Inverse folding.
């Protein structure tokens, strides 16, 4: 535009000079050009106007681009902040769930060294139960996003409720709060996943404990009927406002300020619904009242996971049966070695996938079974599996894998493409060693 305007001004200047100086005759070319003086002025004004508008639009366009870039940067920062907050809440929620049984473990671990045999046995029982609870909590939290059906089996309520109460006794005593258990549970059997129900009941009792002031009372009542069982947990705290009684089950919603994570009741509702039951929050006589109703259905085909540590009928292996344990964690290897040697295994350890492959493929050492971790620095368990599949596929039938994160994409993909058994940490040692014994006696193909 500036170039066009300059050319017009140049033409106008030449015409003026030509009309006045060079050809003053009225009929000259330059005079004819000057007769259109108004036209040239209009053209110049139009050109200048277009130029100014173009400059303004270009400036606005540049400012808009800068604004969009700033908006995108702000949006990315907001998304990152949201992810960090969500991650923080999730980590806090997991810690909240795990800290309950860990508190019980720490509360009873000193009793393992007590001189009284009865006290030692009782402390051992509580520590074992709460350690198993930790394992089941991690397992349940890792699959909450899936639609896995509960592994149901007959659950004796008369035995199940006291087990939960025992684990929480130290917390109630330390807080100076009375825990009352009422109702009739003798002969009451429901078909459910025991670990999931323990987690649900623990969440409600711990929430009631946290809401109750010192000197208060938390009541747990069991109300069985012909086709269902009702658990009622009531506290003497401030209660829950009517408009919040449904929202307390939303993920990450909490009324406890910094103390709460907003995951406990969300997890509880998910587990109860998976069992075909319902959970509601109500107004109690003084504080809050939570009601769980579970149906007494038929047992599912899948059996519940059982713990057989200490069982004298544990199967042993023949002398000279060799096992290779591959894991980068020394204490995990030591734990497997301890349990395996008690059953007659000869155990060899490898702290990496590279060393395992040296023993299996380069030295051609004979092992009747191999327990290999999936996630290790350097060569992973999946890498070890692929190398063996390519060079010595006959060994695959002797392999069993262990992992601390079966929910990860890598572990899921490996599980889908391989036929090897996979155990999730923390696992049941009898189950793991039973599988290894089976693989040693009857190696599978692939």
């Amino acid at each position: 535009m500036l170039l066009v305007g300059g050319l017009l001004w140049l033409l106008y200047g030449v015409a003026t000079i030509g009309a006045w100086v060079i050809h003053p005759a009225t009929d000259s070319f330059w005079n004819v050009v000057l007769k259109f003086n108004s036209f040239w002025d209009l053209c110049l004004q139009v050109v200048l106007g277009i130029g100014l508008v173009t400059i303004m639009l270009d400036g606005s366009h540049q400012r808009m681009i800068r604004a969009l870039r700033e908006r995108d940067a702000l949006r990315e920062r907001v998304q990152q902040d949201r992810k960090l907050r969500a991650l923080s809440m999730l980590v806090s929620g997991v810690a909240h769930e795990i800290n309950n049984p860990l508190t019980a473990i720490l509360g009873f671990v000193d009793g393992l060294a007590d001189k009284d045999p009865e006290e030692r046995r009782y402390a051992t029982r509580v520590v074992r139960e709460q350690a198993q609870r930790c394992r089941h909590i991690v397992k349940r939290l890792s699959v909450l996003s899936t639609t896995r059906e509960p592994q149901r089996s007959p659950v004796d309520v008369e035995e199940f409720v006291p087990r939960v109460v025992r684990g929480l006794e130290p917390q109630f005593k330390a807080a100076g709060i009375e825990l009352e258990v009422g109702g009739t549970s003798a002969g009451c059997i429901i078909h459910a996943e025991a670990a999931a129900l323990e987690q649900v009941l623990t969440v409600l009792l711990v929430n009631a404990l946290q809401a109750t002031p010192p000197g208060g009372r938390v009541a747990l009542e069991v109300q069985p009927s012909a086709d269902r069982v009702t658990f009622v947990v009531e506290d003497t705290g401030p209660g829950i406002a009517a408009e919040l009684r449904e929202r307390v089950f939303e993920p990450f919603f909490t009324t406890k300020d910094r103390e709460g994570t907003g995951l406990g009741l969300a997890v509880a509702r998910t587990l109860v619904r998976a069992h075909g039951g319902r959970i509601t929050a109500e107004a109690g006589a003084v504080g809050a009242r939570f009601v769980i109703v579970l149906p007494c259905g038929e047992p599912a085909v899948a059996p519940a996971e059982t713990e057989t540590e200490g069982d004298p009928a544990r199967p042993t292996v023949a002398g000279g049966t060799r096992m290779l344990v591959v894991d980068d964690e020394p204490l995990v290897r030591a734990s497997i070695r301890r349990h395996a040697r008690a059953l007659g295994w000869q155990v060899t350890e490898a702290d990496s996938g590279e060393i395992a492959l040296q023993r299996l493929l380069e030295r051609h050492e004979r092992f009747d079974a191999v327990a290999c971790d999936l996630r290790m620095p350097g060569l992973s368990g999946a890498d070890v599996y692929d190398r063996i599949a390519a060079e010595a596929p006959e060994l695959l039938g002797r392999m069993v894998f262990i992992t601390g994160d079966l929910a990860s994409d890598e572990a899921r993909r490996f599980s889908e493409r391989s036929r090897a058994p996979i155990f999730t940490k923390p696992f049941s040692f009898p189950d793991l060693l039973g599988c290894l014994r089976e693989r040693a006696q009857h190696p599978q193909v692939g």
